[in-house]
Structure formats: structure tokens, C-alpha cells
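hey so u asked for the seq, here:
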Amino acid sequence: MSPARTATVTERSLLAFGRGVRKGVIKAGGVPVLEDTVAWSGTTGEYRFRGRNQAVVYLGIRYLLNAPRRATVIVCVETGSGGREDDLRFVRAGLAVGR
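ran it, C-alpha cells below
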């Protein structure tokens, strides 16, 4: 379940989203997890996931949210790239939520 579908985005719903991604990857099999982190501070949260399958295709997800009192802003990017390096890592790293 995406945190965006819950009534209020919380640290708990972001952790649940991360667990769902992890379960899906494990179920698919053959994708070693290189990064799987959740960070929460005040009203701002971030989830990062990165894996690489046996065909050397990288999957990356970065999910940012900022939930101040009046409005919740959620931004998510998923990337897939092939080759020896995760060539699209810079795309995920550049994602930002306005402050």
C-alpha cells in the first residue's frame, strides 16, 4: 500500500510501504537488495530502495514526503538501468521536495 493512499502520511505508513516493496522484491526473487532505508524527521520522511537482478539491471526507488499541517507533498521516482553501474542514481539523488 502506498503511503499516499492513507488518510494521514505517517512514519508508520512509510515503514509499511517499505515492507511492501521488500516483500515484492523477495517474492520476485533473484534481486539482491543493495539499499533499503527509511528516514523520518519531524514532518519529513524518505524511503530509498536499490537492488540489482542477475541480468545486471538496477532498480531504484526514492520516495520523499513533506507533511506540514496544511498539505502533504509526496514525490516518488523509480528508475531502472542496465550495465555495470547504476547510471540513473543521480536522478534519484536529485529529487527534492520544496521547503
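The radius of gyration is 14 Å. Residues 11-28 form the longest helix (18 residues).
lmk if thats what u needed
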